[in-house]
Amino acid sequence: MEETNREAVATAVQRVAGMLQRSDQLDKVEQYRRREARKKGSVEARLKAAIQSQLDGVRTGLTQLHNALCDVKDIQNSLADVSKDWRQSINTIENLKDVKDAVVQHSQLASAVENLKNIFSVPEIVKETHELIERGELLQAHRRLMDLECSRDDLMYEQYRMDSRNAHDMNLIRAYFDHVQGLSDELAKQLWLVIQRTLVTVRRDPTLLVSAMRVIEREEKIDRRMLDRKRQTGFIPPGRPKAWKNRMNEVLEGTVSARIESTQSETRDSDKMWLVRLLELTRKYVLDDLVVVKNLVVQCFPPHYNTFQLFFDLYRCALSARVQELATEKLEANEIVSLLTWVLNTYQSVEMMGHPDLQPECDIKQLEPLLPQEVVDRLLSEYMKTFTSNITGWLRKALETDKKDWQRDTEPEADQDGYYQTTLPAIVFQMFEQNLQVAAQISEEFKEEVLKLCLKQMTSFLVRYRDEVVAYKEEHLKDRQLPQFYVQYMIAIINNCQTFKESINSLKRKYSHSTDPTPNDAAIEKTLSEVAKEGCQFLLDEVFLDLENHLNDLLTRKWLTGCHAVDTICVTVEDYFNDFAKIKKPYNQEMTAEAHRRVVVEYLKAVVQKRITFKNAEERKDGAERMIKEAEQFSFLFKKLSAGEDTDWLCGSITAIAEVFKLTDPSLLFLEVSTLVSKYPDIREEHIVALLAVRGDASRDMRQTIVETLNQSKPSISTRSSPVFRDITVPTIATMTAMAVPKLLK
Prior knowledge:
Layout lengths: L1 H18 L9 H67 L1 H18 L1 H5 L1 H14 L2 H25 L4 H10 L1 H19 L1 H7 L1 H28 L10 H18 L12 H27 L6 H22 L4 H12 L28 H34 L6 E2 L5 E2 L2 H19 L1 H35 L7 H26 L9 H32 L4 H4 L4 H16 L6 H22 L8 H25 L6 H15 L6 H11 L5 H11 L4 H13 L20 H13 L1
Antiparallel strand pairs: 1-2
Helix pairs in contact: 3-6, 5-6, 5-8, 6-7, 6-8, 8-11, 9-10, 9-12, 11-13, 12-13, 14-15, 14-16, 15-16, 15-17, 16-17, 16-18, 17-18, 17-19, 18-19, 19-21, 19-22, 21-23, 22-24, 23-24, 24-25, 26-27
């Protein structure tokens, strides 16, 4: 305490010293004193209040502790009294055992008395119940059965309470009521017959179906009550729980499965369309049955059974099991398509589960698939394998049929525009179209896969087609008289290439949503172009085989003296091109251009082969004029065949050479040759030398000078038109000798 006083004094001294640091603060001493006195009084008041509050709390706590102590003593005394009374009553409880036994016996006797009427009349009730069951009065029969079971169960329960280990009495009761279980089984059998024929019964006698459902509901309630008593007492009557609702579901499941399986009345051996018929019957049965369930059966079942969903699930499970069973069989390609189309499309369509009569209870968006995806993938894979094998065989057979047509003694058919054609493109693409239509019924993705396979097979087929066309040409060359309509069928083959292109593009537009090129597009386009180009080449070869002798007469002495080789050439070409007019664009245009080029090239070959050497100016003039005239004939002919297109470029080369021959002043020869070279820059040195040799009046030095001068100032090759002289070779002396020997031998 003294230490505290000293600390308080020291603190006060410091506080006062802080207040009186300046002289002007001495005037406020009284003010400071009053202020500190007020603070002191306030602190003392708060301290007194706090102490008083603490004292009140302590006083209250002591009072409560005193009361609790008194209560504990009262409880202790009461417990002592209870313990004393309990000890005194033990002997009394032991003396009441006889009373307890009497109470149990009284309960049993009361139960027996209560069921006495039923006990004595059990045989009679059994007989009545049996008759009611036979008459189909299910509710009345079940009422009797419940009375019998109630009597039996009450007696057995009392026996169980009295002595649960007394099996003799239990068996005695069970034996007395032995017929009750038989009645229960007989009633259940009738119920299951009604349930099995639900869809028929609900139309003919819905009351019977309602009665059956009421019986099942009664039994479900009794089952629940018996199970509750078992949890409380451990006793449950024999035959419980009956679980007739579960049994009803099993019966319905078996009925639905049998209904689905009954749709197969035929096999593949008796009818190739067996699966289509089976699936259509299944669709009809399921739709009709579910409509009946929705409109009639639902009204006969308790609402909490969710009847439509119950039947819907049963039918879905039965359908799934059935189609999975079908999927395990060895199905043909068309059967796989029928099954998958039905499973993936028909099942969810308005023809079946999406039918308006099933809405809104049936939500097709919530339908589970009938087949697992791996089964679908397996079936699609099997179909693709079979389809690949089949389409290869179909294409091979179609090609063999077309090859036989090539040998016919009649012209090929013509389309509406008069173009020759064979049936091959129509057969092939009809085949593709049918399979794509089938694939489209399954899914868009599968349709794309089938289209890719068709194009892939088309690629291989066109390679074989090309080989057969070449073989056809080779066989014809062995005897040009056979086949009789070789030219016409070769024209049809060329036209087929264009038809193939158009058909492929049509298929892609119709059955593919993708605009990206497929890996097979380039190969198909290339092969078709090659077949058409080679076909045109074969036809031109045919023309030039007929023109060979006349071409050999060009630029010879015979020609100079007035032969009609060019007239014959023009007539022959025009005659052939009357048939070639039945070639479709663009091949007919390309063929005309190629024929024009080959005629001119053959003519120029005749010039550079030096078959003739002009002896004088008169011969040169006659020859040049004849060449100009024949160039005009060629130009007129091919302008006519090409519908007025420019023909001057090629025929102009003949005219330009004629001008070289026609020139009378050798000193101007260089200029004329220079003009020729400027027009046709692909002309080579050996060509010029050959031309000068044919002219006959150019000396070796002049030829050398002209060639060297032209080589120094030779223009670059123009890209304006295709080269004329590029493919023309000038024969050497050895070549000329080799060419002359066969003629001498002739």
